[in-house]
Amino acid sequence: MTKYIGTTILVFCGFLTLCGAVNADEPAVPEPFQRYDDSSKYTINYDDLTALLKTVVVDVGRSTRRVAQEAPDVTGTRMKSKVKRTANEGNRFYFETFKDEEEAREYLRSIQDSLEQLPAEAPLEFFSRDEQLAYWLNLYNVTVLNEVIAVYPKKNLKKLFRGKNSIFSRKLLTVAGVSLSLNDIQFTILKQNYDNNPLIIYGLYQGIIGGPNIRKTAYSGADVYRALKNNASEFVNSNRGTFSRDERTFRVSSLYDRNRAYFPQFDSDLPEHLLNYLEGKERTAIQAASRIKADIDDWSVTDLGGSHQRIGGSFAHNRAALLDSVKSTVPADGGGVIATASGYGSATMASKGKQLSRFEPELLAILHELNEKRNAENQRNAAVSIEDLEESPVESIPDSGADQEEN
Asked: Distance (Å, rounded) from C-alpha 249 to C-alpha 255?
């Protein structure tokens, strides 16, 4: 089957509008990010980001809701360590190696730069809404990683969230010529383009234990909603997300308070949302509670354990054990394999991440043709009209939307 691109796709995109109504008090979604093509089969390649995440993210598994125990007192000190019930939860990122490896920092920054420049090469209107959602989540999360790496080994990130200098309020990105903050992505582009869907918040990594998980793979348009639901279920059913204090009060994460824009009628919308995912006794508890209190937080950075070296429990007090979980293997000269120390030195990082095109060859050919026509018209001081574009027959692209294995 032959697919025709050119006039058809541009005309179709031109008639599409934003999902959902826009509140008069909200800033409008910038024009380059308004249109989409849900008939598009084009995808964006994130193999480099996935390779990196698989190497430096430790998946700690679902919460058991067990409270971490305090480590034994160390002889010769009167100091006590207060342990949060959230200390054993949340996937971890190997920030430690980025502190010491300039090449690793440069590589992660290059991924952000590549994603930031992507819409200038291929306008987002060429892609479906699901593909665009995966793009925005990946760009947001990589940017957060780079900002946290810049201040690491800072352990408590609360101050990074507050005020005019918050990493979320600063204009850190320029996408398709538009200056954007992380809040612009979260509360304008994603909120409006995706009809205020609260699932969005679970895909936005915050760099802290008290936030949604960072995953071991990049988001993709093919399974973005399944991945978000998986993150939502993990977070809601953890001590980071919800906890029943008593029969009257049901405690939830301060993440929900910071995202009240996604729950306009907070006291009714939030319980309704949580009941989609809550399991066990907390499900009964929220239905019986007379009030919700959004006061659960843990501002600790999601490193591999440097911020929790004296915590007991199943996880965080043993940094060596954590490092074992990111060990990789390389071929030995005489056959077999050799385990590397961390799996992520600068050389390993460089080999994991390959230079790649994020677009399919057919789309690149169309964009090249479009740019040539625009340049020719610009030289004649005339604008390109849709009628000037010749339709280019392109072989149909196999559907890449097959479900990917969840982590």
From this structure: 17
Closest Cα partner for 137 from 66, 53, 56? 53
Picking from 285, 320, 290, the residue whose alpha carbon sits closest to that of residue 306 is 320
What angle separates helix 102-121 from helix 129-151, to the nearest 10 degrees? Answer: 150
Predicted confidence at residue 361, as pLDDT, reads 73
Angle at 146 between CA 173 and CA 313, to 5 degrees: 140
Residue 85: both structure tokens together: 């019930």
Residue 288 half-sphere exposure toward CB, CA atoms < 13 A: 10
Helix axes 224-236, 129-151, angle to 10 degrees: 50
Instruction: Give the three-state DSSP class for 186.
Output: helix
Inter-CA distances, 193 with 2, 31, 156, 253, Å: 31, 12, 33, 25
CA 108/CA 246 separation, integer angstroms: 44
Instruction: Judge contact between 169 and 183, C-beta under 8 A.
Output: yes
Using DSSP, state whether 58 is helix, strand or coil.
Answer: strand
Token pair in block for residue 177: 């010529």
Helices (H), strands (E): how many in the chain?
14, 11
Residue in 390, 401, 406 with CA at minimum distance from that of residue 4: 390
Which residue is listed with tokens 């005020």? 163
Instruction: Please list, in sequence order, all residues whose beta carbon lies within 8 angstroms of the beta carbon of residue 264, skipping any fewer than 6 positions away.
Output: 196
Half-sphere exposure of 388 (CA within 13 A, CB side): 13
| Predicted pLDDT at 213 | 97
What is the mean pLDDT of each successive set of 10 residues along the chain, which is 407 residues long?
33 35 74 96 95 94 78 42 75 91 93 96 95 98 97 93 87 98 98 98 97 97 98 97 90 97 96 97 95 95 67 37 36 31 40 58 69 64 38 38 39
d(CA 126, CA 9): 7
Q: Which residues pair with 294 in a beta bridge?
A: 252
The pLDDT value given to residue 164:
75
